Amino acid sequence: MALQIVWFRRDLRTTDHAALATAASRGPCLCLFVYEPEMLQAPDFDPIHLEFLNQSLTSLDLRLQQLGNRLVLKTGRLPDIFAELHREFGISAIYGHEETGNWISYQRDRRVRAWARANGIACHEFPSNGVVRRLASRDDWSAIWKQRMRQPVIPEPATVPPPPPHVQVPSIPLLTWQQAGLHAPRISPPQTGGRHAATDCLHSFLNSRGLNYRSEMSSPLTAAESCSRISPYLSFGCLSVREAVQAGRQRLLQLRGSQQQTHVDPAWFQSLASFESRLAWHCHFIQKLEDEPTIEFRNVNSAFNGLRENEFRPDLFEAWQQGVTGYPMVDACMRSLQAGAWINFRMRAMLMSFAAYHLWLHWRQPALHLAQLFLDYEPGIHYCQCQMQSGVTGINAIRIYSPARQAADQDPRGDFIRQWVPELEGVPDEYLAEPHRMSRLQQDLFGCRIGRDYPAPIVHHETAFKTAQQRIFAARDSAFARHNARKVYEKHGSRKRTMEQRTRNEG
Ligand SMILES: Cc1cc2nc3c(=O)[nH]c(=O)nc-3n(C[C@H](O)[C@H](O)[C@H](O)COP(=O)(O)OP(=O)(O)OC[C@H]3O[C@@H](n4cnc5c(N)ncnc54)[C@H](O)[C@@H]3O)c2cc1C
Predict the structure, then answer these.
(1) Residue with the nearest Cα to atom 20 of ligand 1?
(2) How do 3-8 and 29-35 pair as beta strands?
(3) Mutual orientation of helices 364-373 and 328-340 as an angle, nearest 10°?
(4) Mind listing the pLDDT tens digit for each residue in 120-169?
(5) 8 Å CB contact between 224 and 410
(6) Of all atoms in ligand 1, which is nearest to the CA of residue 348?
(7) pLDDT given at position 1
C-alpha cells in the first residue's frame, strides 16, 4: 500500500489542520517535517528561529504520539527527500497547506509540485488561514476572509493511523544550530514554541492581559504585556488565525452575556474589536506576498527604484543595527529587540522609518536584519510593512516618525530609554530624548559626555527629516509613481477605504 504523506511546514499543529484531518480520514499517514539547509542558511533565518521551531516540533510530535502516530524529521533538499521515500515505499499522495513563505520556499513548492506531477503523485494543498491562492480580484478578498473565519475550526482527528509496520522510516533527532551551520544563538526565545504555550498565550490575553490592549499597544512600556504576543505562534502555525478569531469572538459573547449580571469594563469591547481587525491585517498583508512573491526584494511600486539603492551607507546601517545612533528612542528599541526578539508595532514602524528616512537606507538590508531579530518573522507581513514604512508603495500615507516625539508620547518619564540605554541614566527627563542638546557643563554634571559615553546623533534630525520628506514626496508625486500606485492599489490595496481616503497607514 502506497504512503500518504502529511507534509508539515509552518503549520505545526493538529487542530484546524485540514491536511492532517483529510489524510487521517483516508488512511495511514507518514507525518513529515524536513529541515531544509537552503532555508536554514538564508539571510532571514536566525538560530532563535531554529530553537522555537524545535520546541514546536517536539510539541507536535508529542501530540501526534497521543494520536497514534509520530513526527518523522529529515534534513535535505526537496523534492529529493520525497523522491527517496517514493523509491523505497511508493508515495500515493502528499497533503499540506499552501504556504506563503519566502522566495526559497516559493521555489521549493514549485519544484515539489512539478516533481509530484511528473511522478503521478497527488498533491493536496489546503488554504492557509485567510490567504487565497490565485485570488481573482482584491475586491473579493475581504468577503472570502470573513467566510473562512466563520467556518468551524477543523477538529483534531481522533487518531492519525500510522504507516504499516513494513514502512520503517528513520527520523533524525532535532537539528542543533551547529548541525544547521548557524552561529551560536545570541538569546533563547522569550516565548516557548509549541501548541500548549500558544493556547496559554492566547487565553491569558483574552481573559486578562488584553483588557487595555487598545490603549496600551503603542507604548513599549505596556505593549509587551497588553498585546496578545501570539505572533510567533501564528508564524509557525502552532495556532491558526481562525482559532484566534473564533476565540476572540467567543470571549466577546461571554462578556456580553455577563454584562447582565456584572459590570464589564467597556475597554474589553474596544480591545477585542482591535484584535480581530489585526488578525484580518495578518492575512491581508500575507495576501500581497502571495499575489506578488517578488515583494520580498523588489519595490512593489517600480517608480521608487533607484531612489535609495545607490546611496546605502554601511556606517549608518551598522550604527542602526547596533543601537548606537545617538537617538535614544531608536537605540532603546533596537537594544530591547535584540534582547527580547519582539517589539510592538509602533516601535517597529519607527525603527524602519528611521532607517529609511533619516538614514536614507534602502529597505532590503534593514528588513533582513529585523527578520533575524523578530521571533515572529513572517515574510508576507514583514516585507510589506518594511516597504510601506519606507514609503515605496505609493498607496500608503508617508509617515516619518520623529524619535523625540515618540519618546514624548510613548515613554514620557523615560523609563524605557533608561532601561535600555543605561548610559543616559543620570540625564534629566527634559534632555533624555535628545541628550546632545545638553551643554558641555550639563553633560559633565549628569555624567554623560556626548561622543564619549553616548554617541552624538549620526545624522541631524531636522535636516535628514526635511531632505527625506522632499525626496520621498517628489518621487511619490511623479506621474509615473501615481500611475503605478493605481495598479498597486488594484492588486493589493485594502478596500476598506478608497485610495483618496487613505490618509493613514494600513497598520
Ligand atoms: C517594519 C515592520 C515589520 C513587521 N514584521 C512582522 C513580522 O515579521 N511578523 C509579524 O507577525 N508581524 C510583523 N509586523 C506587524 C506587527 O508589528 C506584529 O504583528 C505585532 O507587533 C506582533 O505582536 P502581537 O502578536 O502581540 O500583536 P497583536 O497586536 O496582539 O496582534 C495580533 C496579531 O495580529 C497580527 N497583526 C498585528 N498587527 C499587525 C500589522 N500591523 N500588520 C499585520 N498583522 C498584524 C499579528 O499576526 C499579531 O500576532 C511588522 C510591523 C512592522 C512595522
Answers:
(1) 345
(2) parallel
(3) 50
(4) 999 999 999 999 999 999 999 999 999 999 999 999 999 999 999 999 99
(5) no
(6) 53
(7) 66
- Among 45, 245, 384, 385, say which to mutate for ligand 1: greatest number of ligand atoms within 8 Å of CB: 385
Whether residue 499 is predicted with pLDDT greater than 70 in this model: the reply is no
Q: What structural domains and CATH numbers belong to the chain?
A: 3-126 (3.40.50.620), 195-291 (1.25.40), 295-501 (1.10.579.10)
**Dist CA 87 CA 89 (whole Å):** 6
Quote the ligand 1 centre to 240 CA distance (angstroms).
Answer: 15
Does 235 sit in the ligand 1 pocket, CB within 6 Å? Answer: yes
438 CA distance to ligand 1 middle (Å): 36
The grid cell for 127 is 488554504
> Is the peptide bond prior to 79 cis by the omega test (within 30 degrees of 0)?
yes
**What pLDDT is recorded for position 118?**
98
Has this prediction a pTM greater than 0.90?
A: yes
Report pLDDT for 501.
47
Nearest CA owner, ligand 1 atom 22: 231
| CB 328 within 8 Å of CB 457 | no
Output the CA 189–ligand 1 centroid distance in Å: 17
411 lines ligand 1 (CB under 6 A): no
Q: Is 74 helix (H, G, I), strand (E, B) or coil?
A: strand
Q: Is the CB of residue 234 below 6 angstroms from any atom belonging to ligand 1?
A: yes
Give the distance (Å) from ligand 1 centre to CA of residue 345.
Answer: 6
Looking at the predicted structure, is the pLDDT value of residue 504 above 50?
A: no
Contact by Cβ (8 Å): 5, 44: no
Report the 3 state secondary structure along 99-153: CCCCHHHHHHHHHHHHHHHHCCCEEEEECCCCCCCCCCCHHHHHHHHHHHHHCCC
The pLDDT of residue 210 is above 70: yes
CA distances from 353 to 183, 268, 294, 349 (A): 29, 31, 21, 6
Whole-angstrom distance, CA of residue 210 vs CA of residue 214: 8
* pLDDT number for residue 421: 98
153: CA distance to ligand 1 center in Å? 23
Task: Report CA(214)–ligand 1 centroid distance (Å).
Answer: 14
Name which of 320, 375, 363 is nearest 190 in CA terms: 375
> Please, what is the end-to-end C-alpha distance for the chain in angstroms?
50
